[in-house]
Design brief:
Low-confidence stretches of chain A: 1-15, 449-453
Largest sheet of chain A: none
CATH class of the largest domain in chain B: Alpha Beta
Mean pLDDT of chain A: 88
Distance between the termini of chain B: 24 Å
Radius of gyration of chain B: 25 Å
CATH architecture of the largest domain in chain B: 2-Layer Sandwich
Radius of gyration of chain A: 23 Å
CATH architecture of chain A: Up-down Bundle
Number of strands of chain A: 0
Number of helices of chain A: 15
Largest interface: A-B, 69 and 69 residues
Distance between the termini of chain A: 15 Å
Mean pLDDT of chain B: 87
Oligomer: heterodimer
CATH topology of the largest domain in chain B: Alpha-Beta Plaits
Order of helices and strands of chain B: EHEHHHEHE
Strand content of chain A: under 5%
Structural class of chain A: mainly alpha
CATH superfamily of chain A: Formate dehydrogenase/DMSO reductase domain
Strand order of the largest sheet of chain B: 2-3-1-4
Chain lengths: ~450, ~180
């Protein structure tokens, strides 16, 4: 029954609304348990490792990375695209599924959006530290200067990227915060007088639940969802143009924008599931994140995973069917060259593994889905690695062919970005409501009415 | 001048909606309804207009797009044209992505700013809660005496008949006991 109803039925009578508030607010009001501290210590240590690596890289120079004149982009840009992709599932859940009136999204919406913000932060670090002189990062934006003014070049996809990522971060953060305001007011009104109440009074903007405000609020929420939907598509499209506008074989393809967007949602959905499967256990939110979420999100993973698989095939076929020898070579080199292990890791993790989710029994198992999402996360990281490194390392001129090995600094930076992501997520779980309280209250009736009819 | 008001407190949305319907039929003045979540359908019962904030979004978005497109053209083709790979000064297609991003940025931020302004919300504002549980599990309907025919006993009965769990009399702007 629980996997058919929107949410398991709650106790009848007036206690229902108060229970929702109680369930979601309680975990953030008590001292965190041992599991949280253990996770936090691990995540924070990873973050510190990353901080050390980045400090060393900035102080010494970009030569601490394994890059060379042939392979000018590798780990850093792989991580950048990987993290941006992770973020996109959050926007899919918060904006696109809102427009499609998918009510199950209310359970995972808040956490997925928070994940978006943290993932974009992780992503934003990589292009900046890749500059070598990160303190000049602001040169990408047009500002009046004493050199003319000499403006940045609006014809460059890298400039588009800077605008796309910044807008994406600002709008996602705004959307997330607007959604939080009523819940912050709920937390404020529960709190006893003191520092906590003061902080939440500032954060909740004097929200009093007036319906005229609710009416306007709903309109703005809808508008933001409508803006976020094309925005999220535009962001990964522009990321794919970083590659597609270059004349590198394996990059110069018109299929890139849809291929990248599908891949982004695929990897992001896997990360949402990875996080939510852990969070529901640790936070005791089993009633709000249930089998139905697991089922629907698994199906989204199959769908996007199959689109990604189709894109791999299309790419490969087009290259072999076309008459460009360099294009043909790059794809054969991906499957059979020195990075074949990475290519086949990508194919098995992204195309083959998710297909077992077709079986309902597997889709219904928290453990098995968790394992599959880990595979997808790994596979999608390798996808970006394969696209970037295999296209570059054997370019047009065999004399300049080169190898690429990541250095310990690069690996430590990658670990550090995971540390940053999990540290922020764990802190978020502690200080803010992880589930949209007001939205859950709005859909409480749906499950119940569905039972009655 | 302070007005006499009656506050009906409800436990679920259907009771509130039926009370609002009855109050509107009796031509009572509804000051405001307070709910812990956005009760769908209530805007129709209350006869609230569709918010015109979408207009702000449209105008701000259009402004952002036009200004940014003009700025890109001005910097690339007029102020300091730079030859990049022989591309034309006015590379209109290449200006589209940034124009789009700035349009979304303007539209989104302006809509939220407009919401905060018209709804009178700002960081640190002290909330005037009509009932201490209105952000948790209570829905409240605030009625105001609008003419001499306003009969307190009758209105109180009306609220209670529609399932009000609590009815309190108050004056405009009166402090609520926490």
């Amino acid at each position: 029954m629980a996997d058919v109803a929107l949410r398991p039925p709650l106790v009848a009578g007036h206690k229902r609304l108060a229970e929702v508030t109680e369930d979601i607010c309680r975990p953030m009001e008590r001292w965190p348990g041992l599991a949280w501290w253990a996770a936090f210590v691990v995540a924070f240590s990873m973050l510190m490792l990353g901080v050390t690596a980045v400090t060393y890289e900035i102080a010494t120079g970009i030569g601490t990375w394994g890059l060379n004149t042939t392979v000018g982009w590798a780990f850093g840009i792989t991580n950048f695209v990987f993290w941006i992709g992770i973020g996109h599932a959050g926007t899919l859940i918060s904006a696109i599924l809102f427009l499609f009136r998918q009510r199950w999204r209310t359970g995972v919406n808040r956490a997925a959006e928070a994940m978006t913000l943290f993932a974009v932060m992780c992503a934003g670090i990589f292009p900046v530290i890749h500059l070598g002189r990160p303190w000049f990062a602001y040169w990408i934006f047009p500002y009046p200067n004493f050199r003319g003014s000499l403006w940045m070049n609006y014809r460059s996809p890298l400039a588009w990227d800077a605008f796309a990522i910044s807008t994406y971060f600002i709008i996602s953060a705004t959307f997330w915060y607007v959604g939080l305001i009523p819940d912050l007011a709920t937390v404020r009104d529960r709190a006893n007088p003191g520092l906590r109440k003061k902080i939440f009074t500032i954060l909740s903007f004097g929200w009093d639940g007036g319906y005229k405000t609710w009416n306007r609020y709903e309109m703005v929420y809808l508008l933001l969802a409508g803006l976020c939907t094309p925005l999220v598509v535009s962001v990964h499209t522009i990321v794919s143009w970083d590659f597609a506008t270059a004349v590198i074989p394996g990059w110069h393809a018109t299929i890139f924008p849809p291929y990248f967007v599908a891949g982004a949602i695929f990897s992001g959905m896997a990360m949402v599931l990875t996080l939510m499967i852990i969070a529901r256990k640790v936070m005791g939110l089993e009633a709000y994140i249930n089998k139905r979420h697991l089922d629907v999100m698994s199906k989204l993973i199959i769908t996007t995973g199959s689109i990604v698989g189709l894109a791999y095939l299309t790419e490969f076929f087009t290259a072999q069917y076309g008459s460009n020898r360099y294009e043909q070579f790059v794809f054969l080199n991906r499957a059979r060259g020195p990075f074949a292990w990475a290519y086949w890791t990508m194919v098995s993790c992204n195309v083959l593994t998710p297909q077992i989710l077709w079986i309902r029994k597997i889709r219904n198992s928290w453990t098995l889905v968790f394992i599959i999402t880990i595979f997808v996360n790994i596979g999608m990281w390798f996808e970006r690695f394969v696209i970037i490194v295999t296209s570059l390392h054997r370019d047009y001129l065999p004399a300049s062919w080169a190898d690429y090995r990541p250095t310990s600094v690069e690996i430590a930076t990658l670990i550090g970005s995971f540390g940053l992501f999990f540290t922020l997520f764990l802190l978020f779980c502690r200080v803010l409501p992880v589930i949209a309280i007001a939205e859950i209250k709005g859909v409480l009736k749906h499950g119940v009415q569905g039972e009655a009819h | 001048m302070s007005q006499f008001q009656l506050l009906g407190v409800f436990e679920d949305e259907s009771a509130l909606i039926s009370a609002v319907k009855a109050a509107r039929q009796q031509r009572l003045r509804i000051v405001e309804v307070y709910t812990p979540y956005a009760v769908h359908g209530l805007e129709r019962v209350l006869g609230l207009r569709r918010s015109r904030l979408s207009l702000v979004c449209l105008i701000a978005g259009a402004t952002g797009a036009i200004v940014k497109l003009w700025f890109e053209f001005w910097t690339m083709a007029i102020d300091w044209p730079v030859n990049v790979g022989g591309k034309p000064w006015n590379s209109l297609p290449a200006f589209v992505p940034v124009t789009f991003e700035v349009m979304v940025l303007f539209a989104g931020l302006s809509s939220v700013a407009a919401l905060l302004i018209v709804a009178g919300l700002w960081p640190g504002k002290q909330p005037k809660l009509i009932h201490p549980r209105v952000t948790n599990d209570r829905l409240a309907l605030l009625l105001e005496e609008n003419d001499a025919a306003f009969d307190v006993g009758r209105v109180r009965r009306l609220l209670e008949d529609h399932g009000a769990v609590e009815v309190t009399e108050r004056l405009t702007g009166e402090e609520v006991p926490a």
